[in-house]
Amino acid sequence: SFLKKVLVAFPMLTRGIGKKSSSGDVFFHISIEKIIEEAIAPLIEVNSLEEAKEAAYRRRPYFKMHVNSPLLRLQVIRITSDNLANLMVVIYLHHIIVDEISLRALEKAIHCFLNDSEFIMENEVNKYAGLMVEINTSLDSVEKQKCLKNFVEKYLVSNSANSCLGFSSETWSPVKTFEAKRNEYKLELDIHKICEKLSIDSFHFYFCCYLLTLKRYLAENDLLVCIPVTKRSHKPTGELGSLFDFILYRYEFKSDHNLKEFMLDVHFKWTNNHPKNFIPLSDVLSYLKHKKQMAGLKMHNAFSFDFKDKNDSHIINITSKHAKFPFFVNICENSNAKLEIKVEWATDIIDESIIENFASSFINTCTKITQNFETLKEVSISSIDVMNQEEKRQILSFNRRIEPIPNYYMHRLFEKHCNENGDKIAVICEERKISYNKLNEMAIVIAAYLLKVIPEEDISKKPIIVMMERNEWIIASILAIWKIGGFFLPISDDMQQKLLQIYADPRMQINIVLTNLNNNFLKIDIPEKLNVIDVRTIFSSGKKYHVKNNQPATSPGEMLAYMFLTSGTTGEPKRCMITHKALSILLESVTRDFKLLEFEVNLLQWIQISFDVFILDLIIGILAVPGTITIIPGPYRQAVFH
């Protein structure tokens, strides 16, 4: 009788998933009689409320899709020896038929039915048949497909935003199941005065704190968050029903915003996007899959906010069996300004220590802003420290002081090895063996030539592109650039398109490209304004070049050694500028940690030059100690044992 009342009040719970058609899953109606027959589990008895919670957790069902079976289960647990409760009614629901917001309405209804009181639906629910027709029609509409195309191109392909904590080789997939775990935290804050001053509500306050914390953990200024909402961009608008929506909310941080400006900006963008928006997340994923663009949204996080009144204390939420998102934060505020923070995550993707640190930092952010808003409101958001004290202490414990702080020029260390071990083999590539003296001679000739063709004022200001395959020429070219006081930007021979992207970037100023590629290996049309120098031709010309061994005009702490661009997989590629002093510190660290002075170093060089690990190879192999680097030629990189 109880379950029948629930199903009559919420007809969307009678939805099932049929076999897939060419356009996707097919939704259909399951009769109330069939659900009652299949969904009610036998009564069980336990001694205490805690045992009941444990039993409810253990008995979480695995819902089978596409077999015409109900997507809910009802389990009644009788509690025999507990002063607080004598009965627990557990309803398990698949997330495809109820989301976090709709769950609140369902909880209120269940409370009314169990106490024989009247339940009034705040939003009238359409008749089920009409609801299904409207939804399926909307999904297949031409207008919806245009909206999907525009959204994906704007937010997920051409300029994709980062979306989730990802610290595992596992990648989130909406068609794969991941085990879920949940941690709960309690907090008591009075934020209402702040909300009144800014004319925002509690949701916006906590959402701002969430974005600030997420920004810190992702080290990104461009974030994408899934948020459950009750409004749709298609019919039936504002109704409870199937296909409950998560919108995809994107926020780009502005470095010049102070805290007050940031919070008002988040509120403005939410209130102006919410009524119009958005595309349901499930549709976005289906579209990406169909267009074979799933890489555009590998992972995502979710944030939701609820308000719970004092009559809801009897409700106990059981952790889901499977994660709906890799990372899901739910904030629940009650009438006494008490806060419940629930963090649910996919255990195969995110380690629990990350979750604990994130939750602690989120609580720290909420508390700090609440207690110090008047002081912080004019402070730049980039200056607000969200990290919790324990994590800060742990990170600082990794720091090891080096006294005195090393401050070398990298090429000077190489020249020292030449003086002491000049005849020793520095580089092996295929059948060629190049000694330290020979490699230094090659570098000197290239350096002298560069001094002739590069204006003196450009040497320390504009990066020299090295677009080369890995062999002795790339190492000689790097040493040459350092000898003249310049710095380089590496491009691997298999990533030549990057040169055109860098050339088109107005922030970049480049004139010189060093290469050792034959014309038949050049896969791009190099802009005419670039001076492309094949370093091999400098030697084949037979001309004699010399370079003075002068002291550089700037110190190692100011003199750039190289720059590289991040991959762009988590946002816009960033330019990283590395000085000789920074490399000196790295060199000292690896010399000590790898105990390089205690054995003969022979390093197998495999990584492409666009990755800065390539520089680590040079440091270990020929700069920290006079070792030998054996370079695996490009054709054999994927067959190391060849």
UniProtKB/TrEMBL annotation:
Annotated AMP-dependent synthetase/ligase domain residues: 414-634
PANTHER family according to UniProt: FATTY ACID SYNTHASE, NONRIBOSOMAL PEPTIDE SYNTHETASE
Name of this protein: AMP-dependent synthetase/ligase domain-containing protein
Keyword Phosphoprotein in annotation: yes
Top-level taxon in the UniProt lineage: Eukaryota
Membrane spanning residue stretches: 613-632
Keywords in alphabetical order: Membrane, Phosphopantetheine, Phosphoprotein, Transmembrane, Transmembrane helix
Species in which this protein is naturally found: Dinothrombium tinctorium
Gene Ontology MF term list: catalytic activity; phosphopantetheine binding
Condensation domain sequence ranges: 53-396
InterPro entries: AMP-binding_CS, AMP-dep_synth/lig_dom, ANL_N_sf, CAT-like_dom_sf, Condensation_dom
A GO cellular component annotation in the UniProt record: cytoplasm
Gene Ontology BP term (one): amino acid activation for nonribosomal peptide biosynthetic process
